[in-house]
Design a protein that fits this description.
The complex is a heterodimer of chains A (319) and B (548).
Chain A (H helix, E strand, L loop, with lengths): L2 H30 L4 H6 L10 H10 L6 H13 L13 H36 L3 H15 L3 H15 L12 H30 L2 H9 L3 H38 L5 H10 L3 H29 L5 H6 L1
Helix pairs in contact in A: 1-12, 5-6, 5-8, 5-10, 5-12, 6-8, 7-8, 7-10, 8-10, 10-11, 10-12, 11-12
Chain B lengths: L5 H11 L8 E3 L15 E6 L17 H5 L5 E3 L6 E3 L2 E6 L5 E6 L13 H16 L5 H6 L3 E8 L2 E6 L6 H5 L9 H5 L2 H6 L8 E7 L3 E6 L21 E6 L3 H9 L5 E2 L7 H6 L3 E6 L3 E7 L9 H10 L2 H8 L30 H10 L3 E2 L5 E3 L2 E2 L1 E7 L7 H13 L3 E7 L1 H9 L1 H4 L7 E6 L5 H7 L12 H12 L3 H17 L3 E5 L2 E6 L3 E2 L2 E2 L5 E2 L4 E2 L2
Parallel strand pairs in B: 1-13, 2-11, 2-12, 18-19, 18-20
Antiparallel strand pairs in B: 3-4, 5-6, 6-8, 7-8, 9-10, 10-11, 12-22, 13-22, 14-20, 14-21, 15-16, 16-17, 23-26, 24-25
Helix pairs in contact in B: 10-12, 16-17, 17-18
Classes of the chains: A mainly alpha (319), B alpha+beta (548).
C-alpha cells in the first residue's frame, strides 16, 4: 500500500470509530430515557383508551424492546453494520428507506450551500482586502459579525417575503428543482459564509504582510495578481477546513431551514424522529449524519495538497 | 419542531405586510359570496402544516388527515350546528330498544373507485377489520373507543346489515358519521396497516388519491362518476366541481398565509391569529368552526399535592380571566368564548358560562379558607410550602401555546398562585404522564395543558375513568361514578342528563379547567367558493369551486 492510500485507510478507520461512538452514545442516551417508544406511541397526550397490555407487549416485541439492553444493543449494532436500522416506530417501514429518501435533498442543499458560502465568503474577504476605501473596508469587515448573529429562521422568512411573495422570483417552498434550492441555500449559507469571510480576511491581511509578498511586489507583480494568485492560495486553507467543519452545522441548520421552506429532507426527518422519540430513526439519522461529516472532512483533507503543494499526506502517514 | 424565534419573525412580517381589518369571517358558512354559477374544473393548492403519519384516518397518527377525509363516505351524516344524524350511504336504520343492535338499509347505487360494488358484506368487513386492527393497537384512540364493545355484524341481504354491541352504544350513529369510520373497499381491507397509512386506500368518496410524495404533497383527483353526495349537507349532486386538490406541506404559518396572499395557494390550513390579516388583506376570507371535544384546558395530576387538592383546582378555575385570554391571544373573528368543559359544537353540550366567570375575589377566599396566606413575594404559602404549580405543556401545541400559558401565569399570580411552566416535547410529555402513579406526590407536574378528542360525549367516559393514563388509576370515586353513569345510559334522556352532570362536575371540581375553545381556522382565497367545514370542523371540498 502506498503512503497516501495508507493515510486514507487510517483516516477511514478513525472515521469508523467516530461513527461507532455516535451510534453508541445515541443508543445509551435513548435507552436512559424513562419511557419506551411504544407506550409513547399508544398514549399521545395521555388520551390512550382501550389498548390491552397484551397488544402493547406484542408491539414491544415487534420492535425488539422486550429484550435485555445488551442484546438490544448488539442486535442494533450488528444490523446497523449491514445498513439495517430496523423499522421506524412512528412512520413504519425501514429506517434506511426513509433516510435514503430524505438524504439526497439535504446533501444537495448542503452542497449548494457550501458553494454559496465559499463564493460569498471569499468574495467578501477579497473585496475587503482589495478595496482602497477605508469606509467600505470597515463596512465589509463588519458584515460577517452582523450576518453570523442573524437567526437563520428570520433570514429565511425575510427572503421568502421579498423574493417569493413580493418579487415572485423564486418559489417559497418545496423540493421541485433548482429554483426551490436558491432561497434555502442562501439562508443556510449566511452563517458559514460569514465565518469564511472573517477568517479569510484575517489570513489575507497576514499573508499580505509576509516577506514573499514584498518579493513579488519587487518583481513588479500587480496587487491584484499578488492577492488572487499568491496570497489567497496561502490564506484559503484554514477557510477550507472551516467549511468542512461547518458541514455538521449545516446539517443541523437544515432542521430549521427545511421547516421554514417546507422541504423534505434529513432535517425534517430528524425533527420528527426526535420529538416522537423514534429510537431506530434517530439512530439511523445520527449514524448517517456522522458518516457524511467524516467523509466530507476526509475529502477536505485530501484537497489540501492540491491547494498547497507544500502539504503532503506522506509525512502524516509516516508519523 | 425546534423552538424558533417566532415573535421576531412575525414582527418582521408585520412590517412587510400591510395589515387591514378582518373581513368575511364566519363560522361554518361556506366561503365566497355565493354569487355566480358553480364552475366545474380547476386545480387548487391547499397548504397544510404537516405531512400526516397516516393518510388513513382510522389508524394511529391519521386523526384529521385532510386528504383521507375527502376520499371516503360514511354511513351517516352529521349536520353542523344542529348535530342531527342524517342518511348518507345508509338510507335508513332501526335501533333496538336496548341500543345494542343497529340495522342499516344501504344505498344500492354506490361503487368504490376501483369499480367494486358497495354492499352489506363490505360494511361488515370494514367493522371487523377495524376491530382486528384495534386489537393490534394500530388504530386511533377514537376508533378503539367507538368499537370497544363491538360484538359482530350480520349480513341480512345485499343491502341490509345488522351491527351488534355488548353494551348500549347510543353514540354509534354519530360515530358512524365521522370519517374515521368511512368505508373502504375489500382490496384496501386486505392491505397492511403500513400500506394503508401510506395511501393504499380505495373509498367511495368524491375524490380519489392521485400522486403522493411522502413529506411533500398529496394529490386528490375528482371522481367523475360520483353521484351519492349526502343531501342533508351538500349544495349539489354529481361529481366534485374541482378537478384536483394538491395538499402541500408548509410547516410555517406565516409562510402559508404568504402563499395565499401571493396566489401560490388557494387554501391554507391552521391560520395563526397574526396571519389572518395577511389572508384578508389579500381579499381572502377566513372560515372557522369550533372543534368538538374537550376544550383547551388544564388537567390535574391526581397524585400531586396541588393537583389532587379540590380547593386549589377551584381557585385556579376562578382565577382565569377567559375573556382576556380570548381578546389577547385568540382572534375574536375566528373563535368563540369557552362555555363548558367541552366545545359548544359537541353534542349534549351544557352551557356552564356562569361557572366559568372570572372571580378573583372568590378564588382568594377559597385559598384563605384553606389556609394559604400571602407570602413575601405575593405567592401564597402554607406551613412553609409555596403555592407554586408546575404546569407541563408541549411545545408547538395549538391547544395552549406558550403565550397562552404565560398570560395564565400572570392571571394566577394576581390571586397569589405561582405557576412554573415546564416545556416538553410530545415524547417527554407522554413520559411524564405515564410516570404519575409511580412518582406519587414527588410529581413532575401538578397540571398538564391539553385538550381531548371527544366528538361524542361517550368519549368523556374513557377520558375521565381512571383507566386513562392521564389519571393513572387514581381513586376519585365521585368522578369515576359520573363517568360510569354516562357509560351505562340506555336512553337519550339518561345520556343527556348524565353528560350534563359530568360536565358540571368537571367544571365545578376542576377535574378539567377550561381555558379556551378550540377552532379550526382555514384561509381561502378570494376566487374560491363553496368551501365549508363539517360538524367535526373538517374541510369539505366537494362543493368547492373556483370562479376564475
Amino acid at each position: 500500500m502506498g503512503a497516501p492510500a495508507r493515510y486514507v485507510a487510517g483516516r477511514l478507520a478513525q472515521g469508523a470509530v467516530v461513527i461507532w461512538a455516535a451510534f453508541t452514545v445515541t443508543f445509551v442516551i435513548l435507552y436512559l430515557l424513562p419511557s419506551d417508544p411504544v407506550s409513547i406511541m399508544l398514549s399521545q397526550g395521555g388520551d390512550s383508551t382501550g389498548v390491552s397490555e397484551e397488544a402493547e407487549s406484542r408491539l414491544r416485541a415487534e420492535f425488539g424492546l422486550d429484550q435485555p439492553v445488551l442484546v438490544q444493543y448488539a442486535t442494533a449494532l450488528w444490523r446497523a453494520l449491514h445498513g439495517d436500522f430496523g423499522d421506524s416506530i412512528t412512520l413504519g417501514g425501514a429506517v434506511i428507506g426513509h433516510i435514503l429518501q430524505a438524504l439526497p435533498q439535504t446533501v444537495l442543499l448542503t452542497a449548494v450551500t457550501a458553494v454559496i458560502a465559499v463564493a460569498g465568503g471569499v468574495g467578501l474577504a477579497v473585496a475587503a482586502s482589495a478595496t482602497r476605501s477605508r469606509t467600505l473596508r470597515r463596512v465589509l469587515t463588519n458584515l460577517p459579525s452582523v450576518a453570523v448573529s442573524l437567526p437563520s429562521f428570520w433570514v429565511g422568512m425575510v427572503l421568502i417575503q421579498l423574493f417569493s411573495f413580493r418579487l415572485h422570483l423564486f418559489p417559497a417552498l418545496g423540493n421541485g428543482g433548482f429554483a426551490t434550492l436558491v432561497l434555502p441555500a442562501v439562508t443556510l449559507a449566511v452563517p458559514t459564509g460569514a465565518v469564511v469571510a472573517q477568517v479569510l480576511y484575517n489570513n489575507l491581511s497576514g499573508a499580505l504582510r509576509q516577506a514573499f509578498v514584498e518579493v513579488l511586489r519587487a518583481k513588479g507583480l500587480s496587487e491584484r495578481r499578488i492577492l488572487l494568485g499568491h496570497a489567497l492560495r496561502v490564506a484559503v486553507l484554514p477557510a477550507l477546513t472551516l467549511v468542512g467543519m461547518n458541514i455538521a452545522a449545516m446539517l443541523a441548520g437544515a432542521i430549521v431551514i427545511e421547516t421554514v421552506f417546507g422541504r423534505s429532507g434529513l432535517g425534517r426527518l430528524t425533527e420528527a424522529a426526535v420529538s416522537e422519540q423514534d429510537i431506530p430513526l434517530v439512530q439511523g439519522v445520527v449514524v448517517v449524519s456522522a458518516a457524511v461529516f467524516v467523509l466530507v472532512n476526509l475529502v477536505v483533507d485530501l484537497l489540501y495538497p492540491l491547494v498547497d503543494p507544500r502539504i503532503s499526506h506522506r509525512a502524516t502517514a509516516a508519523s | 419542531m425546534p423552538s424558533l424565534p417566532r415573535r421576531l419573525a412575525l414582527a418582521s412580517l408585520a412590517i412587510l405586510t400591510a395589515a387591514t381589518a378582518l373581513t368575511g369571517c364566519g363560522e361554518s358558512a361556506p366561503t365566497g359570496t355565493g354569487g355566480g354559477t358553480p364552475r366545474t374544473g380547476g386545480a387548487v393548492t391547499y397548504a397544510i402544516a404537516g405531512y400526516p403519519v397516516s393518510i388513513d384516518i382510522s389508524l394511529q397518527g391519521g386523526r384529521g388527515t385532510l386528504a383521507g377525509v375527502q376520499i371516503v363516505d360514511t354511513l351517516t351524516e352529521s349536520v353542523p350546528k344542529t348535530n342531527e344524524i342524517k342518511p348518507r350511504l345508509a338510507k335508513s336504520w332501526t335501533v333496538s330498544p336496548d341500543a345494542k343492535k343497529f340495522t342499516f338499509t344501504l344505498r344500492d347505487d354506490v361503487t368504490f373507485s376501483d369499480g367494486t360494488k358497495f354492499d352489506a358484506q363490505n360494511v361488515k368487513d370494514n367493522l371487523d377489520t377495524l376491530v382486528q386492527l384495534n386489537a393490534a393497537a394500530k388504530t386511533d384512540t377514537l376508533v378503539r373507543s367507538a368499537l370497544a364493545s363491538y360484538k359482530g355484524s350480520t349480513v341480512i341481504d345485499a343491502n341490509t346489515v345488522e351491527v351488534e354491541f355488548n353494551s348500549p352504544e347510543l353514540g354509534f350513529l354519530r360515530n358512524l358519521s365521522d370519517p374515521y369510520l368511512g368505508l373502504l373497499s375489500s382490496a384496501t381491507l386486505k392491505a397492511t396497516p403500513e400500506e394503508r397509512a401510506a395511501g393504499k386506500l380505495v373509498g367511495t368518496g368524491p375524490f380519489v388519491l392521485g400522486t403522493i410524495k411522502r413529506n411533500e404533497s398529496i394529490e386528490l383527483l375528482a371522481r367523475k362518476d360520483y353521484n351519492w353526495a349526502p343531501e342533508s349537507t351538500s349544495a349539489h349532486q354529481g361529481r366534485a366541481y374541482l378537478d384536483s386538490v394538491t395538499f402541500k406541506v408548509v410547516p410555517e404559518s406565516g409562510v402559508r398565509a404568504g402563499l395565499l396572499a401571493s396566489q401560490q395557494a388557494e387554501l391554507v390550513d391552521d391560520v395563526a391569529k397574526d396571519d389572518e390579516a395577511t389572508v384578508t388583506s389579500a381579499g381572502g376570507s377566513i372560515a372557522f368552526a369550533g372543534t368538538p371535544g374537550l376544550v383547551g384546558g388544564l388537567r390535574q395530576n391526581p397524585y400531586s399535592v396541588f393537583g389532587g387538592d379540590k380547593a386549589i383546582r377551584q381557585a385556579v378555575t376562578k382565577s382565569i380571566d377567559r375573556a382576556e385570554v380570548r381578546t389577547t391571544l385568540q382572534s375574536e373573528a375566528s373563535s368563540q368564548p369557552v362555555t363548558s368543559a367541552i366545545g359548544a359544537t359537541t353534542p349534549l353540550w351544557t352551557d356552564l358560562s356562569a361557572d366559568l366567570a372570572y372571580d378573583p375575589e372568590g378564588a382568594k377566599k377559597i385559598l384563605e379558607d384553606a389556609g394559604w396566606k400571602a407570602g413575601a413575594d405575593g405567592i401564597r404559602e402554607k406551613d412553609g410550602v409555596r403555592l407554586d404549580l408546575k404546569l407541563i405543556y408541549t411545545l408547538n401545541s395549538l391547544v395552549a401555546t406558550k403565550s397562552d400559558l404565560e398570560l395564565l401565569q400572570d392571571q394566577l399570580k394576581r390571586v397569589g398562585i405561582g405557576v412554573t411552566l415546564v416545556p416538553a416535547t410530545a415524547a417527554e410529555f407522554t413520559e411524564a404522564i405515564l410516570a404519575i402513579k409511580e412518582r406519587g406526590t414527588d410529581a413532575q407536574y401538578d397540571f398538564l395543558s391539553g385538550s381531548g378528542p371527544s366528538k361524542d360525549p361517550s368519549f368523556l367516559v374513557g377520558l375521565f375513568r381512571n383507566s386513562n393514563p392521564a389519571l393513572g388509576g387514581a381513586e376519585q370515586p365521585e368522578l369515576e361514578a359520573a363517568a360510569d353513569k354516562l357509560a351505562a345510559a340506555t336512553t337519550e334522556q339518561e345520556r343527556a342528563s348524565s353528560a350534563a352532570d359530568l360536565q358540571r362536575l368537571l367544571v365545578s371540581d376542576g377535574y378539567w379547567i377550561p381555558i379556551k375553545e378550540l377552532s379550526k381556522v382555514v384561509g381561502a382565497s378570494s376566487g374560491l367558493q363553496g368551501f365549508r367545514l363539517d360538524a367535526y370542523a373538517l374541510p369539505v371540498l366537494y362543493d368547492t369551486w373556483l370562479d376564475r
